[in-house]
Design a protein that fits this description.
Leucine-rich repeat, LRR (right-handed beta-alpha superhelix), Severin, 18-stranded mixed beta sheet, 6-stranded mixed beta sheet, 29 helices, 23% helix, 17% strand, ADF-H/Gelsolin-like_dom_sf, phosphatidylinositol-4,5-bisphosphate binding, actin filament binding, Villin/Gelsolin
């Protein structure tokens, strides 16, 4: 049963049916010719080489069909469309159709047609569209835009149910009134970019019209009174319609449903005061390119306005309504290219005022002082300040600004000098002589400094001469055409532009002048400009261009080879870096301003399946012959080195990842092929298959199997390749150099209840990406030369089956270039000998076998290397261990997985299998907590947690470690990191032995005074690791030096231990010092007293893991969901919420203690104690 009959939608955009149409024409001519001979090439039984539309006649349930850009020309429409009786939507966009009359009887052939789109074709006359097309009863949408129609199509008024009509971008000069008399249900009408001079008055009958587009029509004498009668109108575009004050409708403001209004593009409106602006729903208003002097005051009533364009008018500042600031929803306000003289007295972030010649920018005032408000801008509009901003330099300080002189102060200084009296003459003479001598000395020093500076500059001019250039031979790199004789090279000796592209880390000359100026953004280039000066001396300018998508190694090589080219020429110029999108004008001028940047890179691997025949071999390419256990790489003598390298890499990937490294790779250069290669090509021999992978069960039953069935015995007894006479040498240059694969097409197989759909997935920049594949879907990929079926791991089995059957039945449509350029020979009028040989009866079988092998199914996770090569981001590198020596490989083998399996450390599972330790009782936990606290040099009192000489808590604030306030001791914030310093008495046995051996006669009290310090670094769950890194590399060393100092005995340093603990992973001894009062808040320590924190509801819960020592009080989100009957909760309600609940003003907050039914009774007393500790300093509160 055919699956295609269940297709409801099919997108065939991008499939070219032009060749198939030419083939049909040839066969039609051959049948009509009476004097055909048996050897006539046109009557040969040509196989289905090009995509054919014959399969469409079996899609009886098809409802929508897209034939966008499929090569339909003149009157050619696929005749199979007439079999689609349920077709509702037909798209013929981007073709070259001149007529639709090839289908007769549209209402009978397509009775369900609802929508026809024939945009961007070559329809010229009204007779090119059949009149019976509009007699389809269900026709609702008609789009004939972007054509060359001069009149309305015949019979268009018969489409009485028409809802949308698009006739824009044509040459229509007259609209018949019958259109609006019959088609009264129109909701969308686009007549823009035509030659209309008037509109029929019957337009007012279309009372349901919502969008009317009349842009760029010569409607100078049209009053458009009928437009004001369209009360349902939401979008009105009158741009470029020569609107003036005398021809704009006065009642235009009565369109209350209007959302978008466009009156822009070279109208002649100078005043809109007659419009009251009664458009409560207007969101878009465009008044640009007019002659407006002032804006109407009614604009301030457009409360929903979001976009306002008034650029390119004659507006002054007085012409802008003062209440325009009331438009709170305004997002875009464009007032550029006007005559504004100043800007509003408010602070703005962005204000575009380009090309306003009389605009006066205020000078920069002094910096804002405290309390100055918004009276000043504090923006420096001067040219120097803007240049400093562009260069990334900081702004000048206001203290460096020179203020004008104060004349009053100068007068006071002169009076003070006169009051002091006239000094002695001798003193004045002496001071004058000293001043002259000092100035003379300064002048001499200045001259010496200038001489030194000039000498240094002269030495710096020839810094290139001081550099030792590498002694390298560049002749084989840049003069690759004549590597043996430099005199024959033309690099840098002919005026003009020469260009090299980076290929395998070496520059390769771009010889074709047409390709110069066409750069690929995935490559890098070196460009040389050679000119001859007036002194008949060569002058060189060297550029290297960097593509935006090029790799780092290519960018580095481009810079290196640009310097190498300079050294090769002996030039003294500097190399210039040019980046894509930021090219200089001098660089663009090298190509006469026609610099074209293409997407992609020339090194992308393109793979096409070819028929298994020697006639498929072309000397410009490389071919990979896959024989399962053997891979043969045929290298053409004219193929590029990059193609040979990519082909070898592909063979390596297939052997390693698909054949478990058991496939052998053979290199077959042209004219030196092996006998086995020709035996496989001619079909007389196949190599031994790959051995099947053995399982454990196979290994156990290995001794039971008879010897005759052993796999190795089969391989040994496999016959060798017979001696084959190589085929006769034929012309192997049949694929044109400019031939390219078509763009890939990715189909998404979609399934519903009783139907299938095959839409296309939109490709970004025409490239395939892994991100497009969804694991729940099934895709059909037409790469241009191969057909793949990709099945996601989460897709259903029925969807996979449907996708596979659908791909098999659509082989007539895809892949499009299934012969890799060989199909071009079939289009010639006089077919070559190669074509006749392929069409011979003896060679027809290869075509059937080849067609069956075009479809390659692959599941997610098991994709073939051929499939992965189709994607731009699926280039996985082979894992190669360059650290292993030959001796290591000989001893331990090649398989790295087996080596890792042997070296895998044994896991100790005894801790998981051992019985769980008995938890401590409450009495034992309290006793242990007391014993650990007694080890401190200053044991704390019971149930009192405060800072002391034995315990100190620090926190990092603004990059500095500060001591935590005493009331916040024992309280931590989960977004901060803390340091807790604990000092203990040192009872270590090593210290005792050291003291006994060293100081036997000393007093034993000296040993008892030894202490040790443990520094705990506590990190909150939401804190970053930056604090830990700063502590580890900056603070730890200094802290260890200070804490280890022993003031009583310098020769015996104290012990210092550092421990890093994370939130809710704390050490038991660490928690014991807080005596069950360990509190963790949310947020930062610096925000502890912020009003935003104190005025919100806070909720804490108390829990202990294992024993009482691990008791923690942790803040959680206040929600009923977080309540648990096994815990006790503390909830603080701020005073302003209490005032609302009690309906009276109060300054007390409420603190609730919620006790779970299964919680411990001791937690209630602990909760009360913690509540007083946390909230007593905030406000007074009753405990509820």
């Amino acid at each position: 049963m055919a699956v295609v009959q269940y297709l409801r939608g099919l997108d065939l955009s991008g499939i070219n049916f032009e060749k198939h149409k030419d083939l049909l024409d040839k066969q039609r001519v051959a049948r009509r010719t009476q004097n055909n001979t048996e050897n006539d090439n046109s009557s040969l039984p040509l196989p289905s080489i090009w995509p054919s539309t014959e399969i469409l006649q079996d899609m009886c349930r098809l409802q929508w069909l897209k034939l966008k850009n499929v090569g339909l020309k003149e009157k050619f429409l696929p005749k199979e469309i007439t079999h689609l009786e349920q077709l509702e939507s037909l798209s013929l966009v981007r073709n070259e159709l001149t007529s639709l009359c090839s289908i007769k009887g549209w209402p009978n052939v397509l009775p369900s047609l609802r929508m026809i789109t024939c945009r961007k074709n070559e329809l010229t006359s009204r007779d090119a569209i059949p009149a019976d097309l509009f007699e389809c009863n269900n026709l609702q949408v008609v789009d004939f835009s972007c054509n060359q129609l001069t009149q309305l199509p015949n019979g268009i008024e018969k489409a009485k149910g028409l809802l949308a009509l698009n006739l824009s971008n044509n040459q229509i000069a007259l609209i018949s009134p019958d259109l609006f008399v019959q088609c009264t249900e129109l909701m969308f009408l686009d007549l823009g970019n035509n030659k209309l001079e008037n509109l029929p008055a019957q337009l007012r009958r279309c009372c349901s019209l919502q969008q009317l587009i009349l842009c760029n029509n010569p409607l100078r004498h049209a009053q458009l009174r009928s437009v004001t009668a369209l009360k349902q109108l939401e979008v009105l575009n009158l741009s470029g319609t020569e609107r003036r004050l005398d021809n704009i409708p006065n009642e235009l403001d009565k369109l209350e449903r209007l959302i978008e209004l466009d009156l822009s593009s070279h109208n002649e409106l100078s005043d809109l005061s007659t419009l009251t602006g009664d458009w409560p729903k207007l969101e878009y208003l465009n008044l640009s390119y007019n002659q407006l002097i002032h804006l109407p005051t009614g604009l301030i009533r457009l409360s929903c306005l979001r976009k306002l364009y008034v650029n390119n008018n004659q507006l002054t500042f007085g012409g802008i309504p003062s209440g325009i600031g009331k438009l709170q929803d305004l997002e875009i306000f464009d007032a550029s290219h006007n005559e504004l003289e100043t800007i509003p007295e408010k602070s703005l972030d962005v204000f575009e005022v380009d090309n306003n010649p009389q605009l006066k920018i205020p000078p920069r005032p002094p910096e804002l002082q405290k309390g100055a408000g918004l009276a000043f801008y504090n923006i420096d509009f001067s040219l120097d300040a803007q240049l400093r901003m562009m260069r990334g330099k900081p702004a000048l300080n206001t203290e460096t600004i020179h203020h004008p002189k104060d004349p009053a102060a100068r007068l006071r200084r002169l009076r003070r000098r006169r009051g002091e009296g006239v000094g002695k003459d001798s003193k004045c003479v002496l001071e004058g002589m000293q001043r002259i001598a000092k100035e003379k000395e300064e002048l001499l020093e200045k001259k010496e400094h200038e001489v030194e500076e000039e000498t240094r500059k002269l030495a710096a001019r020839r810094w290139q001469d001081l550099l030792a250039r590498p002694r390298l031979d560049y002749t084989g790199i840049f003069d690759e055409a004549y590597p043996l004789d430099i005199t024959l090279g033309d690099t840098g000796i002919n005026p003009g532009v020469q260009m090299w592209e980076l290929d395998q880390f070496y520059p390769k000359r771009v010889e074709d002048d047409v390709l110069q100026g066409h750069l690929l953004n995935g490559d890098c280039y070196v460009i040389l400009q050679t000119t001859i000066s007036n002194n008949q001396v060569f002058e060189w300018t060297i550029y290297y261009w960097i593509g935006s998508r090029s790799t780092k190694d290519k960018q580095t090589c481009a810079a290196i080879h640009a310097v190498n080219l300079r050294n090769f020429l002996g030039a003294e110029c500097r190399t210039k870096r040019e980046e894509e999108g930021d090219e200089s004008s001098e660089f663009i001028a090298l190509f006469d301003g026609n610099l074209i940047v293409l997407f992609g890179t020339e090194k992308r691997l393109k793979i096409v399946s070819m028929p298994l025949t020697h006639l498929s071999l072309d000397s410009k390419f490389s071919y990979l012959l896959d024989a399962q256990s053997h891979l043969y790489l045929w290298i053409g003598k004219n193929s590029r080195s990059i193609i040979q390298t990519k082909g070898r890499l592909l063979a390596e990937k297939i052997s390693v990842r698909e054949r478990r490294g058991e496939a052998s790779i053979h290199i077959e250069p042209e004219t030196r092929e092996s006998n086995a290669f020709w035996a496989i090509i001619t079909g007389v021999w196949l190599p031994a298959p790959l051995p099947k992978p053995t399982t454990n069960s196979d290994q156990k039953d290995h001794t039971i199997k008879p010897l005759d069935n052993h796999d190795e015995n089969k391989e040994i007894n496999y016959p060798p390749a017979p001696v084959v006479q190589p085929p006769k040498v034929v012309s192997r240059d049949f694929i044109p150099t400019d031939w390219q694969l078509p763009q890939p097409i990715l189909y998404d197989v979609q399934m519903g209840r009783g139907y299938l759909e095959l839409p296309q997935v939109e490709l970004e920049n025409g490239l395939l990406s892994k991100r497009l594949l969804d694991s729940k879907h099934v895709y059909i990929l037409d790469s241009g030369g191969q057909l793949f079926l990709w099945m996601g791991e989460k897709s259903s089995k029925f969807l996979r089956f449907a996708g596979y059957k659908l791909a098999l039945q659509l082989m007539g449509l895809m892949p499009r270039s299934r012969l890799g350029g060989l199909e071009l020979l079939f289009t010639e009028s006089n077919m070559s000998t190669l074509t006749q040989t392929l069409l011979n009866n003896d060679h027809v079988d290869w075509w059937n076998d080849f067609t069956d092998s075009l479809l390659q199914p692959c599941t997610q996770g098991a994709e073939t290397q051929i499939f992965k090569c189709q994607f731009c981001d699926w280039d996985e590198a082979l894992a190669v261990d360059f650290t292993r020596t030959a001796d290591s490989v000989a001893r331990r083998g090649v398989d790295i997985n087996q080596i890792l399996e042997k070296d895998k450390p044994a896991t100790d599972l005894r801790a998981l299998l051992a019985p769980r330790e008995t938890p401590l009782t409450n009495e034992e936990a309290l006793q242990m907590m007391a014993e650990w606290n007694d080890e401190l040099i200053e044991p704390p009192e019971e149930n009192i947690v405060e800072s002391s000489s034995a315990l100190q808590q620090f926190i990092m604030v603004d990059g500095k470690w500060i001591l935590v306030e005493n009331r916040w001791f024992g309280q931590f914030f989960n977004q901060d990191s803390y340091i807790l310093i604990a000092r203990y008495w040192d009872y270590d046995d090593e210290n005792k032995e050291f003291s006994e051996s060293d100081n036997q006669g000393d007093d034993t009290d000296e040993d008892s005074n030894l202490t040790k310090t443990v520094v705990y670094f506590w990190q909150g769950r939401e804190a970053s690791d930056l604090s830990w890194l700063q502590f580890e590399f900056s603070v730890r060393k200094d802290m260890q030096a200070r804490l280890s100092q022993n003031p009583e005995n310098v020769s015996r340093p104290l012990k210092v231990v550092f421990k890093r603990v994370k939130q809710q992973q704390e050490d038991t001894m660490f928690l014991a010092h807080f005596q069950r009062q360990f509190i963790i808040h949310s947020g930062h320590y610096r925000d502890r007293a912020e009003s935003s924190r104190l005025e919100r509801i806070q909720m804490y819960y108390i829990r202990a893991n294992g024993n009482l020592i691990s008791t923690r009080c942790i803040e959680v989100k206040p929600s009923v969901v977080n309540l648990n009957s096994c815990f006790t909760y503390i909830i603080k309600v701020p005073s302003h919420i209490v005032s609302v609940l009690e309906k009276k003003q109060t300054d007390k907050c409420h603190v609730y203690v919620w006790t779970g039914g299964k919680s411990s009774s001791e937690d209630k007393e602990l909760a009360i104690r913690l509540s007083e500790k946390m909230f007593s300093w905030v406000c007074s509160f009753p405990l509820l």
